[in-house]
Amino acid sequence: MMRLSQMSSSGMVAATEQSAGARARRWCMAASFASAFVNMASANDGGQPERDPVSSATSAVIQEYCTNIRDAAAEARIAHQMKQLGEMERHVEDRIAKLEAERSEFEEWLQRREQLLVQAEAKLVSVYAGMRPDAAAMQLAVLDSEMAASILSSLRPRIASAILNEMEPQRAADLVLAISGPVETAEAASE
Question: What is the DSSP letter of 1?
Fold first, then answer.
């Protein structure tokens, strides 16, 4: 049950409708329990419940009242639920808009990062191109194969061959294979 301090001013009408319906339901249930309790008490006293004309009339009035307000209470409940659904829908739409804004911001950041990486790679290639082949070979020998192959493939062929010439033969062969990609052998092609 909502407290009045938790509701906004726009929610007061719906809360009033809901509380009126809730009060009516509680009143009907209380009246029904009271009537049943009176019948049980009289059954315990004498064995047979007495039919008191006043309690029968009260039960009839209670039953008629409950029947009369049932539709109004259901309509109030439906109106309250529709309002809650509308608020939830607005909340979901706001959240989607925020997520879309964050996604576009992330995409912009990713584009800037990609541009920086391209620029950094170009600068890195120019640095390796300006180095002595033996110094560049020592540096590329400790880099991971993908990065070293990327740098070597971006260099002019004459500079790349001079650097490869200064490397250990196995490392140079690994980098050449990484640059050229998978090569199909005669045995693999025949299978």
Answer: -
